[in-house]
Amino acid sequence: MSGGVDSAVAAARAVEAGHEVVGVHLALSRMPGTLRTGSRGCCTVEDSMDAQRAANIMGIPYYVWDFSERFKLDVVDDFIAEYAAGRTPNPCMRCNEKIKFAALLEKAMALGFDAVCTGHYASILTDADGNKELHRAAAWAKDQSYVLGVLTADQINHSMFPLGATPTKAEVRAEAAERGFSVANKPDSYDICFIPDGDTKGWLGERVAPVTGDILDREGNTLGQHDGAVAFTVGQRKGLSIGTPAADGKPRFVLEVRPITNTVIVGPKEALAIKEIAGNTYTWAGLAPEHPEVEFACHVQIRAHADPVPARAQVVSTRAVTGRDGTVELRIIPNEPLAGVAPGQTAVVYVGTRVLGQCTIDRTVSAVPVTAPSLIPSASASPATVNA
Amino acid sequence: MVVYLDHAATTPMLPTAIRSYAEAMGVVGNPASVHSQGQNAKRMLEESREIVSESLACDPIEVVFTGSGTEAINLGIKGVYWARAPRRRILVPGGEHHATLDTVEWLVHHEKAIVEWIPLDVQGRINLGALEAAIARDPLDVALVSLLMANNEVGTIEPVAAVAALAAAHGIPVHVDAVAAYGYIPVDFRALAAAGVSALSVSAHKVGGPVGIGALVLGRATTVEPLIHGGGQQRKVRSGTQDVAAAVSFAVAASAVTAQQLAPYPRGAARGVEAARLAALRDRVISGVALVAPTAMLNGDPERRLPGNAHFSFPGCEGDSLLFLLDAAGVSVSTGSACQAGVPEPSHVLRAMGRSESESRGALRITLGHTSTDADVDALLKALPAAHAQALAAGMADRVPGH
Question: Please, what are the domains in chain B?
Fold first, then answer.
C-alpha cells in the first residue's frame, strides 16, 4: 500500500473477496521527514500515514517493511549505472522485478502469505489448461501491464491485480470515496519516486561525474562538445547546443550515446527509425511459447505510454552477430521502423491483450545505416554489446 | 484476547488514574487565578506535585511538570547546556534514547556543542574509565553529562551514582533519563543528588498515568534556560497554564509507585514484591525463549536489569518478521524503541554495544508491567515456536532472493 488510491482500493477488494489481507507499506527511499508538500516522491511519512489510515478503515493490520537497502542496490544504483552506460533504464520495472514481486513476495511467502496484491491496472486470466496469463487492463488508458512485463510465470501465480477489470480510474476514485478513504482525491504520482522534484538530469548530474566529449554526426564529423554524455537520451532534440545548422537545414536529434568513447551521435529524424530490436535478457510472462525460435507475429511496446506496434519476434542465437557461443537473444522486427527506441529500455511483446514476455534492449539497428567507417563498429551493436 | 507485552512503550492506565483524570477535568479553574476557584485548582495541582515528589524522593518545588518525558529530557539537556555557556562539551553514552540523541545532535548542529559519545560495554553499561578520561581531557569545558538510569531497550541498569561522582568531582551537572527506570526500580533523587545528579526526567504514562505529562526533577541549585517562554509558571522554567487534571492523574499513578517502594521487602529479598513478581515472570520468558530458540541471545546485563525487561537477538531472523508473526498470533511485542513512520531501524543500542547490523536487526523486546500475568507468558511461549521457525525461514531482508 503506497498511500495512493489504487492500492487502497485493491486491498479493500481483496478483503471483500474473502482473503485474509495484511497491508504492507514499503519503505524504499530514505528521505526522513519529507512530506508530500512540494514533493511528489513516495515513501514519505505522509504516504505511510495515508496507507495506514486506509488499512484502519478496512480493518486490516498494517506494517511497514523496510526494503530501502535492496531498493538502493537493485533499483537506484542500477538506474545510475545504466545511465552511466549510455542506456535508458526504467526503474519502475526494476522495482517490480526485484522488489515488489521478488523481495517482497519472497518475504511474504516465507511469512505464510499466498500472494502479493497490488493496485496495478492489469489482469490475470487463466487459460484452458489452468495456466495463468498476464493481460492488459480493461481500461487501456490506465493499463500498466507494460511495467509488469518483467514478471515470470512463478511471480504471476502469486500475484493479484483486483483493479484490472475496472473501466476507469474515476470509478476507482469514486469507490475510494464511498469507502471513506481519505486518499480518494490524492493526485497520481508520475515521476520517478526517488527523484521527487522530477529533475532527472540534475539528479543524475550529482551522481555521475560529467566528462566533456564530442558530438558527432553520422559521417563522423565533430559538430561540437557536450558536457557529459549521460545527460543525453536517444531522440532528444533540445539542448544540443550545436552552433552550425545541418547542411539540409533540418533539426538534428540524438541517435546514439556512446559512453565508451564518450561521444554523442546526432542526425536527422529519419535516422531515429529502428528496424530491429534485440536483447539478451528476456523473460516470458507465464507459459513460454513452445517454439520461440520460430518467428511469430506480435505487438511490441517500448515505453509505458507508447502505442504497441505490429512486429515479428523470435529467439535467435547471437552467434551470427557476435561470433560467440551460448548467447541467445529475443529479436523483434517491427513491421514499420519504430522511432524513440534506446538501449536499456524494455521491449514488451504482446499477443493480443496478453503479455507474452519482454527483453531489455541491448542493441538496435537503424533503418538508415551509418556510412562513416569510423562509426561502424557500434552501428550494428550497441555500447553494451561492444562492452561485452 | 490480545496479550500485551510492550509495557516499556506504554503501560495500561490505572483505573483509578482514569477516574481521577475525568473527575479533575470537570473542575474549572486556572491555578494561576487569584479567586477561590483558581485557588482550588492550585491546591489540586500542588497536592499532586507533592505526591509525585514522594515517588521520586525529592522536594515538591523540584518537580517541574512538562508535556512529556521527551520535553523533560530536552529541558534537562538544552536548558543546562545554555545555562552553562560558554562551555561546549556534552558527554553522553552511545545507547541513549532518541530524546537524548536527537537533542544533543541538535545542539551540535545549531548551538556549537561538541558531543563525545562514551562507549558501552557488551552489556550496554557505560564505560566509566572512558568517561573519566573524557572529562579529564578538558573538565572546565564540559557543559553536562547525560545518561539513562536504565536502558529502555535492553534493560541494563546504569551506574548512575558512579557517573555522578566522576562529574561532581569537577562540578559538572548530570542529567538522568529515568523514564524507563521509573516505577520498576527505586528512583531516589535525594540519594542521587547527594552523589552529584542535578536533574532527572520521568514520564507519567510509563507508570499507569496519562500520556501528555512528564516531569523534570530539577535540583534547587540547578539553573536551566527555559525552552518555553510566557507566563513564568513553575519557577519560570516552564511557562504555560498548568494541566491540573493530568497532574492529578499522574499523582494517582505515582502514589502506586511510592506504595511499591515503601512496601517492606520480603525477608532476604533484594527487591520489592511487585519487582520480584515481574522478575519471576521475566525469568520465565528468558528460560522459555532459551528452550524454543537456543541460538537466541539475551541482551543487556543478565543480573542488573529492569525486572520487566527481556530483550533478545534472534540470529537469522528479522525482528519485524517476529513482531508481525507474534502480532498475528495475538501477542504484542516490540523490536526496540525508535520507529520512523513505522520503519524498524537496526537498534542503535545494540550497535553501540558492538553488535553487527544483522544482530541489531533481529532484536525483540518483551516488557512486562502491572497487568502482566503467568497466562501472558504462557501465551507468548505458545506462539513463539511457530513464529520463530517461520521468521527463520523468511530470513533477513538484505539477502538476495532465491539464495
Answer: 3-10+271-394 (3.90.1150.10), 15-259 (3.40.640.10)
